[in-house]
């Protein structure tokens, strides 16, 4: 019986080891950036990304692609998140798989942090140069100081080729062209190796003498001073003088080699130019809004007034980058990421053209699994249970008008 | 063999055992110090040491020596006063740099593909040598703290300049002036390190024109003196055998 028990124990142990080993070998690639775990209210009520375009799905190493579009800085910015007085237009990729060759807001280069105004809409563009082959999820992203990263929609992009062929040539103001990917590398290795070697030589000098036990005995016996000889002091002096001399000479030679250097550039960029949108002629008032948990659907009752001179229809509801479209009015032709596009997700009780001067109360339902998949339904567990988003109305010619909505959301659990 | 008998039978054997013991202690000490010092330095120096676009002439120069003099002071307090071995600072710094290079090469470059010329660590060996030599020559904690601490802060920037200077060459990029280091920070995407958290060129030190680095280095040296005293005592307290004796 004991033999059987031992065998079972041994086999169990082997099985456990195999399971642990197998688990260690299974290392799937991380495929997202935690955008779904970011609080829903933050994604719905801060930065609204829209009209996004990823210029390519596949990019060879060394070639570029752009991520462009617009973002609206929501006027109903939540109190719990710091205002975007200092924000940085970033790009959400798994490390430097691309290099950011350029980024612009309103046509202005933004390599540093910027100040954004609530209620304004901005055009942006990020130019990326492919560096590391693989399939990468490329997100729009805005970091807000005191608010954290606000990640926008992402799209899979494939980089082909070899990273070994990647180059990043830059021409300096002194006229030299350098490859930033490998620039200064040998110099860095040289100086670090040299100083490590000198440090090691110091250690070897002292390590060549008896160290711990005899010296401890001598120190305890009050003979510590006898452990340091005049040669030791001379060697110490030589190391100190040598160190100072190397530092002085290397500094002088470096200054001779690089006579023009400037401090790091820093400081907030202000005066971002917002997009000039046509005067808003459509007025929307949210009467009520509920989220039906079992149906994964949000229903809004809206009072819409058309003060323009053309009839319009509701085409889209966009919140946290998820687009709900009424297919009878609008079809996506931008190759928007499938998982964030509910092409038939918008149902309107009466979506006949709203004539100029007409006022109508409509019931709008935005339903799709994206509410759950993107954890937007978690909004009902937020401390400030409000929803927000962008409504897009379109006229017959396909010209759209954007209207923001922001209202309390009542959950329905039955 | 009774407990009162020696474990060795001759002087030669005793010397051999003693040397073996020396190498074992140094080896173990190196990695223990590496672990503690590395964590400490990453938590306190952190981004200033990680990225070239944080290595500025004001805050990096000020912060790095202040947070780096800690372990050298503590290790010196043990190795000097107990063994009269004047390599505590160099041992600590070599441990730190070895750990940092392993981290930068295998983690920053090997895993996340940030080029090494963007993420190399700061150079601390020149300051450590001066600290050890001053202790050796003076046999005084006070003098080592004052002269050594000041030297540790002062030599930091010039000791790093040969590696940093090439990255401070200016470029014109889409209509803006940037250094190559700025451009590295801009090009190599860091989703978790937005530009606004970069603590560079901040402060009110604006009356010295472009010659800010020497003033920052003096200030750093001054604070390093105080930190040296503090950590020297930490080292003494940590290495105290009073508790063992009591048992």
Overview of the structural elements:
The complex is a heterodimer of chains A (414) and B (247). In chain A, strands 1-3-7-5-6 form a five-stranded antiparallel beta sheet. In chain A, 23% of the residues lie in helices and 35% in strands. Chain A has six helices and 21 strands. Chain A has 414 residues and is an alpha+beta fold. Chain A is elongated and about 100 Å long. In chain A, strand 14 and strand 15 form a beta hairpin. Chain A folds into three domains: 35-173, Particulate methane monooxygenase, b subunit. Chain: A, domain 1 (Jelly Rolls, Sandwich); 179-257, Helix hairpin bin (Helix Hairpins), CATH 1.10.287; 282-412, Immunoglobulin-like. With 247 residues, chain B is mainly α. Chain B has a single domain (11-246), classed as Up-down Bundle (particulate methane monooxygenase, chain B). In chain B, strands 1-2 form a two-stranded antiparallel ribbon. In chain B, strand 1 and strand 2 form a beta hairpin. The chains are: A alpha+beta (414), B mainly alpha (247). At the A-B interface, strand 4, strand 5, helix 3, helix 4 and helix 5 of A face helix 1, helix 4, helix 5, helix 7 and helix 9 of B.
List the helices and strands and how they pair.
The complex is a heterodimer of chains A (414) and B (247).
Chain A: H1 2-25, H2 40-45, E1 47-54, E2 58-60, E3 64-73, E4 87-92, E5 98-105, E6 108-109, E7 121-130, E8 134-144, E9 148-160, E10 169-171, E11 177-179, H3 185-207, H4 212-220, H5 230-257, E12 282-292, E13 297-306, E14 312-319, E15 322-325, E16 341-342, E17 346-348, E18 359-367, H6 370-373, E19 386-395, E20 400-408, E21 410-412
Chain B: H1 11-44, H2 47-50, H3 59-68, H4 70-83, H5 88-111, H6 116-119, H7 125-138, H8 141-154, H9 156-164, E1 170-173, E2 176-179, H10 180-187, H11 212-238, H12 242-246
Antiparallel strand pairs in B: 1-2
Helix pairs in contact in B: 1-5, 3-11, 4-5, 4-11, 5-7, 7-8, 8-11
